[in-house]
Every structure is written in C-alpha cells, then in structure tokens.
Amino acid sequence: MASQAKYQQLRRDGDAIALRHIRARITEGLRENDILQVLLETPYQDTGQTMDEPLVLTESLQMLVAGNQTSSNALTWIFYLLARHPKYIREIRDEVVAVIGENAIDYQNLHQLEGTVRVIDEAMRLFPPFWMIDRVALKTDEIGGIHIPAGVMVIPYIYGTHRNPAQWEDVETFDPRRFERGRSKERHPFAFIPFGGGPRLCLGANLAVMQILMIVVAFVRHYDFTLANDEPVAIQPKMLLQPQSAVIMNFQAAKHT
Ligand code: HEM
User: Which residue lies with its CA nearest to atom 37 of ligand 1?
Assistant: First the structure.
C-alpha cells in the first residue's frame, strides 16, 4: 500500500508539472511548433471541438511515457549489437559518407539511409522494446484452434513472434540482410511488429525511427565503440525489454575523422 500511495503521489506530481506547461502555453499565448500545440489546436473531425484540458494532459503524458524510454531502450540494444558486430559500424559510416557527406542531417537524406534502417530493424527484431502488447477480444473467436471467449485479454507476444522459426531463419543471428528490399514478402505481414499492428499501431513509429537514425548517425559518423565486457548481456523483461546489467561501452574517435 505504501508504494501504491507513493506512485499515486508521483503521478499527481507529474500531472502538476505537465499541467503548468500546458496552462502557460495557453495563458501566455505562446505558440510553438510541437506536438503539444497540435494537441491543443487540432479540432476533432466529427465535433469540430478541440480537446479539453484533462484530455490534453492525458495525451501529453501518454506521448512522454510512450516515446521516451522506448527509443532509448532501442538505442541501447542497437549500440550493443553494433559493438558486437563492428562490420556494421563501418557499413553505416560508409553509407553516411555516401549519402550525407559533410552536410547536416535533414529529413531528405535521412530517408536514404537504407542500410542503417536495416540495422535498426534487425536490432528491434532481436530486442523489441515492447516485447508484448495487449488486446481484449470484442467477440468470441478462435486462433490456431484455441477458443477465445469474448472479453478475454489476449497478449500478442512480440519477442516470440520475432523469433518464430516458421517466419525467420537462424532466429538468434544478427543479420540485417533479412530486411533487404523485397524480402518482407518471405514472411507474414505481422512477423515483424516492433511498433504493434492494426489500428492501434504506435503513433510515434516514424518519429521514433527518425530520432534513432539521427542519434546513430551522429555517433557512428565520429566514433568507434566497443563493449567494456565481452559477456553477452542478458535480457530483463520488465515493461520494456531491458538489459539485465548496464551496457558499458568505450568510445573513441573514428580513425578517418
Ligand atoms: C523505438 C521506439 C518505440 C517503440 C518500440 C514503440 C512501440 C509501441 C508499441 C508496441 C505500441 C503498442 C501498439 C499496439 O498496441 O499495437 C505503441 C503505442 C504507442 N506509442 Fe510507441 N513506440 C516507440 C516510440 C514512440 C514515440 C517516440 C511516441 C510518441 C512521441 C510513441 C507514442 C505511442 C502512442 C501514443 C501509442 C498508443 C497508440 C494507441 O493506443 O492508439 N511511441 N508504441
């Protein structure tokens, strides 16, 4: 109970901080080019009304919570896998030189980094930050011979789906070539679901990939990195698929920079 009360209090404190920002935006008449502004100003298509304050608060916190640790968790595993497979650090660096050169990263050139995206996808196949999601059956159904009564919660198991040998060869092997163009036809459309699927697909999927790309490019452009410890890092499935221990790495300036 004590910890319940503690978490409720933390929740109230978090709400109060977010609410201060939301109210300041409205009362001070500030207009920013960000998601909060979109939430405040976009009218619903059916009613023509904008969101009321409690809804803006809930939606803002949802974005913060859903969009924060998920991307950093994905980045941890990406850097871990890159350090274990330095060939891909070099491949990404070559691609960045070929596509971006010395220019700044922008929306256009980021989208041409196909090899880098393949590495990100393969890392999220092996270590999907959300390793499971939940659904409630609206009506009675049957999946693979299993009876699902209406109202029952079903947990799509992302981690298992990404290592299903019926869909993937050598499931444990880190091999970004699986994501080469055209090869998705080899598997079920829902064989790769790091961002979920269907109408409730992650709202921030494109933003997340863009953020991750920018961070990977910024590091790989200038640094080589190795793991401080060669032991494989075990997973610790909490709400996110966390590493069981800290992933400690050494960074050094890349030779050619
Ligand atoms: C690597 C980073 C991320 C991963 C792996 C991830 C994964 C997911 C997954 C698996 C779901 C559930 C989808 C489903 O039930 O089918 C989800 C939902 C959601 N995500 Fe993400 N996410 C990431 C980043 C973000 C970011 C950056 C944002 C926002 C800025 C975001 C916002 C949301 C929201 C609002 C939902 C709920 C959508 C709904 O229920 O309609 N996510 N995400």
Answer: 202
Contact 238, 96 (CB under 8 A): no
Report the phi/psi class of residue 125: left, alpha or beta, with left for phi > 0 and alpha for psi in -120 to 50. Answer: alpha
Determine the residue type at 211.
Q
What is the C-alpha to C-alpha distance for residues 223 and 221, in angstroms, rounded to an integer?
A: 6
Q: If pLDDT is split at 50, 70 and 90, which confidence band does 256 have?
A: low
Q: Whose CA is nearest to atom 9 of ligand 1?
A: 195
CATH code assigned to 68-253:
1.10.630.10
Cβ of 242 below 6 Å from ligand 1? no
* Domain residue ranges of the chain, discontinuous segments joined by +: 68-253
pLDDT digits (tens, 9 = 90+) for 186-235: 999 999 999 999 999 999 999 999 999 999 999 999 999 999 998 999 99
Q: Is 16 helix (H, G, I), strand (E, B) or coil?
A: helix
Q: What is the whole-number distance in angstroms between the Cα of residue 213 and the centre of ligand 1?
A: 17
